[in-house]
Amino acid sequence: MTQTTPAGYSVPCTKATSKVITVDHHRAPRVLRAGRRALSILSAAWLVASSGFARAEESADSSNPLPIEIHAFVSQGFIKTTSNNYLAEESTHGSFEFSEVGINFSKQLTDRMRVGMQLFTHDLGPLGNYRTRFDWFYLDYRFWDFLGVRIGRTKLPFGLYNETSDVDAARVPILLPQSVYPVSNRDFLLAQTGGEAYGFLPLGDAGGLEYRLYGGAIFYDTADATSTLSNVRGPYIYGARLMWQSPIEGLQLGASAQRLRLDGDAAFSADQIAQLQMAGQLPSGFSGPVKFQIPATLAVASIEYSAHDLLLASEYSRWWDSLNTSVPSFAVPQTVSGRFYLMSAYHVTPWFTPGVYYSLLFENLADRKGKNPPYGSVPGAAPLGRGAYQHDLALTVRYDLNAFWLLKLEGHYMHGTAGLSRELNGNQPLSSLTEDWGVFLVKTTAYF
Amino acid sequence: MLLWSLLGLATFAGRATHAESVPPFRILIHPENPLASLNKDFVIDVFLKRTTRWHDGETAHPVDQRADAAVRQSFSDNVLRRSVSAIKRYWQQRIFSGRDLPPPELDGDEAVVGYVLKHRGAIGYVSSSAKIGRAKAVPVQ
Lengths: 448, 141
What we know:
Low-confidence stretches of chain B: 1-20
Radius of gyration of chain B: 16 Å
CATH class of chain B: Alpha Beta
Largest sheet of chain B: 4 strands, mixed
Strand order of the largest sheet of chain B: 2-5-1-6
Number of strands of chain A: 18
Distance between the termini of chain A: 43 Å
CATH superfamily of chain B: Periplasmic binding protein-like II
Order of helices and strands of chain B: HEHEEHHEHEE
Shape of chain A: globular
Largest sheet of chain A: 16 strands, antiparallel, barrel
Strand order of the largest sheet of chain A: 3-4-5-6-7-8-9-10-11-12-13-14-15-16-17-18
CATH architecture of chain A: Beta Barrel
Helix content of chain B: 40-55%
Shape of chain B: globular
CATH topology of chain A: Porin
Strand content of chain A: over 45%
Distance between the termini of chain B: 36 Å
Helix content of chain A: 10-25%
Structural class of chain B: alpha/beta
Number of strands of chain B: 6
Oligomer: heterodimer
Number of domains of chain B: 1
CATH topology of chain B: D-Maltodextrin-Binding Protein, domain 2
Structural class of chain A: mainly beta
Mean pLDDT of chain B: 86
């Protein structure tokens, strides 16, 4: 089976390791958190407003084609589930732990060279907690249209929307299809530190080809880790994306693939060691952390039609991953998950855009119905059942209240519990959570 | 889902037919730009910044008008084949992923004409009735 790491990356995990890889949120008292949130949002709003003045001053000089560009966004969301905690700890009661703030600065130094950086802070359930970080920063040099290079911390071009998965203003749904773009994976799969080569090649009557190649490392913010995990890092990640802009205006097709590895140490409490030794999963006399490695390969095929007011998009993805550990009984052989969605949106008016998607996730394509127990379970354990799949039918309406402010409402009908966090649900097995459930979200974003 | 898509396609088809009428805008380039006409795909690539140079190597400087300008909507529908909202979303994606920056948005035809005359690599659009001075209006094929 797969489990969810503290940052939400779906990784193979035995029942035993799932006990020790638990979330210790280190959360401040609720009142303090609410105050901190209010302060953060107010600070961000002030930042947005003051930056807006700065930007206005820049753009007033329209004769300068190379100004400093400043853009920012502030989002606040609310999430409520009918049952099962999802993304936030208390989503069944309704949670406001769904906020994002970002500001970026870009400067075209010459016709070919550009620099930029974005500061980002967010709160999503146990993740983020308003720690500010560099979301991306880069030096970009475009030799020709068919070849440019970018070095620094850059977003990962995986599929159609991974790069913009945290940019609410750039899409219709509040949550992108979580089968392909799980929001809890943000810290692992949104950006890498290294280099990238990119280009665009016009093909005449055959359209055009956009390509990107990248490689580097993943730096994981250990503040998001649990008390039992340490030294979490991604020593390497590399991949490519190829998108063909077809001669049919608005139609593009493409494929992306990436290979990465996550390493780390999992520590054990004395009680956990005793339990695991009794279960025969740790040798007697064990001490010290368990070192783990999670090699993974991700691939996705994409198609998007975006013309005039209509958007149609679909993607199919497979992720291959396994768990190697210094304690052989925790190791999990390679599993292959299957992920798919079909999405549509239509601009009825410039201020009103409804959208709909259907998303499907199978955590293990070899066991789509969860007939087998999770890997590493004790003999006779219950099968994974509803924890093996997730069907998600989502409806969204987006209101653009003005050019800088939007409001979205969204409802999901969910069938299955794959992708849910056990830690957010009292460490209950996914097979025991409610199979048919709903998610309702409201989100507002100010941006420029 | 199917009904939704069909509804969208039907409305799209209706708009596409409407868009075949004579475009109420002119595309302008600098008077020293040697081109006498422009390929439509090239214009799209320049305004989406997939192409950044003219054929002679000069850096292209596309310039937009405000999102609520009628001429912007007409240009977007007829040339870019996407609504202004969709184009804005395209740029939001690129801005916040650090990929690129949108063309500057200027207030009205006069500002666009001034910009085009000032920058040799500029390309912009104005309403059909605008006074374009020395700027060169070129057809798009």
